[in-house]
Amino acid sequence: MVPYMKDQGAKVGIKFSYGGKVGNTLDSHRLVELAKTKGKTDQCIEKLMSYYFEQEKDISDKKVLLQAATEIGIDAKEVLEGDQYADTVKKEVENAYRMGISGVPAFIINRSVSLSGAQETETWEEVLSELGYLDTPNK
């Protein structure tokens, strides 16, 4: 899957490296929750994904998260020094596990179908066709 992701990323200007440290991402998810309240969810997620997948930064490090927040115009110091949003994130994780999601990206469609991890185009076509969003899968 890594070669596939690198190839797909290169097509849209993303240079995946997969060398970043894997650690506890509770704080990065709490930062995303804060970003939601500021209307900057997408910016935050894009920044964190770039940090991890392209720049090999440790998104479990609070200094790195503060840098990301600053770059998207959010003051996150108080949130990251406390435990705000931790319960929200933990509940979302529990819900994700119940739905069979164990990684990112993860997609929930109509609250009934979930896809976890990167998926081939054919998988999306099949799922969307079964749900009635595509008349026929493209072949």
Automatic annotation (TrEMBL):
It comes from Lotharella globosa. It comes from the Eukaryota. Pfam families: DSBA. Residues 5-128 form the DSBA-like thioredoxin domain. This is DSBA-like thioredoxin domain-containing protein. GO terms for molecular function: oxidoreductase activity. SUPFAM superfamilies: Thioredoxin-like. InterPro entries: DSBA-like_thioredoxin_dom (IPR001853), Thioredoxin-like_sf (IPR036249).
